[in-house]
Amino acid sequence: MPSTTTRASIQAAPAQIQAAPLAARKALFWDRTARKYAADPIADPEGYEATLLRVQSLLCREHDVLEMGCGTGTTALRLAPFTGHLLATDVSAGMIAIAREKLAAQPVPQLSFALADADAPWAAPCSHDALLAFNLLHLVSDLDEALAHAARALRPDGLLISKTPCIAEMNPLVPWLALPLMRVIGKAPHVLCLRTEELQSAMVRQGLDIVCVEWHGTRGKDVRPFIVARKPA
Fold first, then answer.
1. What is the domain-level CATH number for residue 116?
2. Helix intervals (H) in the chain
3. Which of 82, 85, 193, 208 could cysteine-pair with 203, CB 3.0–4.6 Å?
4. 3-state secondary structure of 154
5. Domain that holds residue 120
6. What is the pLDDT of residues 148-181, one digit of tens each?
């Protein structure tokens, strides 16, 4: 069952969404694309499975885990059985609705879904043993602020487990031409053009220790580092 702090996080999340105009704008974009997002195939299934196995090795069945930016819940459904409880959150009500449909079709007792914005203080201090952020950190409005919230929510010795597209490491035409054009026509959200070193530095600025930096991609150049950082005990 969810802990007291976890239940408080669930209850607080909708109010946070209503109070944040920026969150509402982000939610609107992802609400519009939620059904298409849910239908899109995973681009690198082998790399995805490698990441799942690695994350499973870092979790245990006594952990309270929070996932930020869970999308339509596919990853949460796979990982929740390896936790004590997994609260999976997203800023988009459309995404969460699809995630709850999946959960109803495939019940997992350890899993629950809730609305929350990664840019807001969405969890009580020291309330979780692990935080998951997959394909999320390049989408936050302020990287340092989002990581500060994450660090605050972790218990001592807790882990931030992330995998992030580092767009600045892609072909220059992507960050400087393709993405701006797609944003103009409403086909892409605001993104941060990050490098792996910038992600690590931002985590260290928030008092986290880097545990590992790995690449799990199996198709071409991998620009999505898997980074695990620990909150010092």
1. 3.40.50.150
2. 4-19, 21-39, 45-58, 74-79, 93-105, 143-153, 173, 179-184, 196-205
3. 208
4. strand
5. 4-230
6. 999 999 999 999 999 999 999 998 888 778 888 8
